[in-house]
Amino acid sequence: MNILKRISKVFVVLLLIISILLVARELAFTGSILPPSPLPTQAKIIDIHAHIAGIGAGGSGCYVSPTLQENFRFNQYLAGFGLTRQELEQHGDSIAVDKIATRLRDSRAVQGVVLLALDGAVDTQGELDLPRTEIYIPNEYVAAQVKRYPDLFYFGASINPYRKDALTHLEQAKNAGAVLVKWIPNIQHIDPADPKLTAFYQKMRELKLPLLSHTGQERSFSSANDTYGDPKRLELPLSLGVTVIAAHIATTGKNQGEDNYQRILPLLPQYPNLYVDISSLTQINKLGFMDKALREPRLQGRLLYGSDFPLSNMILTSAWYFPLNLTKEDMRRINNIPNHWDRDVALKQALGVPPEVLTRSAAVLGVN
Ligand SMILES: [Zn+2]
């Protein structure tokens, strides 16, 4: 009897909480951030920020540190890619690329994806330092994979500028078709403000290679130096005329007691060569930032579409995290879209991301 009473009490309290939440939602519902527009029909939508997986299977040269392989995140990432470790071992790392290609061909919204290499940490001799590297996805591997699907993929190179032959690597990457250089300074141990990198930046500018640099905290790996994610450190390449794309608009973490997001905004009017990507802004840990970004006058004309795949295909991202912007029908409809890229674009479109943000990458990368 007592148990039954207790259960019914819990039930009543739960019902009350749900009713309060529902009423609160009705009252706080704001609708989309900007009015949603139809998808662009003329210009291409290119995802400027997508990762690929590799463990070195099939002689790919990719590397994932034992620490990260043992980390619980590793299997979650593989699931986000729609992969299992067995599949990689059996068919080689390139199966990851084949799967992405199949999905992309099925996508109605997205026509191209920049696949990102990821260089490792570098030792004092300027050589790859595997013990300090968590993930290494070689340029040669990504360039070769992109060539297998030239209608779908663009090559995003990654070169640690502290490599002793970094300038040669830059030229090789450009010759292999690179459309940008990607860094995650926090884990590659790169200080973007280091004057020693000046020659590297000058070469980037000469080769017309933009720098896509992770900004803000980095929490996808087991360790990181977050001072290198400070957007203010990008002033050196910006002042040297390099086109810089600050990934995620520095939406996490602080430096010198100030939010990184607040630290990037004053740089925009100062440097017309500074862009940002909206990848990861629909993640649950960044709620509210899409709203800020779409309303921020200094970001007008600077936002680029990116997904941060596979993070966008994990529990971190869902239409259900936007109950104040989207109707129940919209959240359900978007969540049920099977294709990852269509779902990602549909969510951003429903929130009010304008078509020009979706199509701006092609012009900034100089591709068509
Ligand atoms: Zn990323």
Task: Please supply descriptive tags for the structure shown above.
single chain, 16 helices, 368 residues, eight-stranded parallel β-sheet, TIM Barrel, globular, binds zinc ion
Structure description:
This protein has 368 residues and is of the alpha/beta class. It has one domain: Alpha-Beta Barrel (TIM Barrel), CATH 3.20.20. Helix content is 40%, strand content 12%. The protein is built from 16 helices and twelve strands. The strands form three sheets. The chain has an eight-stranded parallel sheet with strand order 1-3-5-6-7-8-11-12. A two-stranded antiparallel ribbon has the order 2-4. The protein has a two-stranded antiparallel ribbon with strand order 9-10. Strand 11, helix 13 and strand 12 form a beta-alpha-beta unit. Helix 14 packs antiparallel against helix 15. The mean pLDDT is 94. The structure holds zinc ion (ZN). The site of zinc ion has 3 residues, from strand 1.
Task: Write a compact overview of the structure shown.
The protein has a single domain (31-365), classed as Metal-dependent hydrolases (TIM Barrel, Alpha-Beta Barrel). Helix content is 40%, strand content 12%. It has helices at 2-28, 66-70, 72-81, 85-91, 94-106, 139-148, 166-175, 185-188, 198-206, 235-239, 260-264, 267-270, 289-295, 328-335, 340-351, 355-365, and strands spanning 46-51, 63-64, 112-116, 135-136, 153-157, 178-183, 211-214, 244-247, 254-255, 258-259, 274-277, 303-304.
